[in-house]
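Rab-GAP TBC domain-containing protein, Branchiostoma floridae. Tokens?
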Amino acid sequence: MYCSTGGVDPTVRKDTWQFMFGLYPFLSTAREREVMSAEHHFKYHQLKARWKTLLTVRASTYVDATRSSVVTVFYCRQPINMKDIRKAVRIIDKDVPRTDRGHEYFKGSGNPHLSILRNILITFAAFHPKVGYAQGMNDILSRFLVVLDSEVEAFWCFSSYMETIQTDFMEEGMLRKLSGQNRVVGAPLNTDFTFELFVCVAMLQNIRQQLLNCRDGTEIFQSVSG
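Tokens:
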């Protein structure tokens, strides 16, 4: 009744995604969902506050005793690698401004939805150290944010979805993809190079057919830049 060639009908898409992507169990009652919603909000804002406090304190040359003790409590609950999170923040800050700027939801200078996107990505990276942040996650998250229009719900649905595809953003998953590409290109690929170069090769493999259809250097440059 609510299905179409474009997927779930837009009028019920948000409600459907809440169940499809693990925000609520399918058999939960309305009352149970109210309780879970409150828990989701509390937990998310706690997680976000932790990395924000840590980044603020670590960047400051002076920390008072009260503030320091709060950070210690947060840090002991779940260790955060500050080096990794700073690296993630640098990449996220480059990717977020380029995310779906043609979409009405993200258009305009100083769009608050971009700040929300940034907060979610950093929160995810901080508390999922095995995965962290990788380019492309911003595009996946943007879909959740557009449909759900909620920072908290987008975070939990995105996190749930990432559990099923996280290996695609890790070295082992990319190696598996490249091994599959060996059969496509008909020759073995040398993977004895840095991870950064490896990522570049993986990205080029994804647009291989598009590159083959290019007629000149200008079109190749446009394909790679786009």
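Residues 167 and 173 are 5 Å apart (CA to CA).
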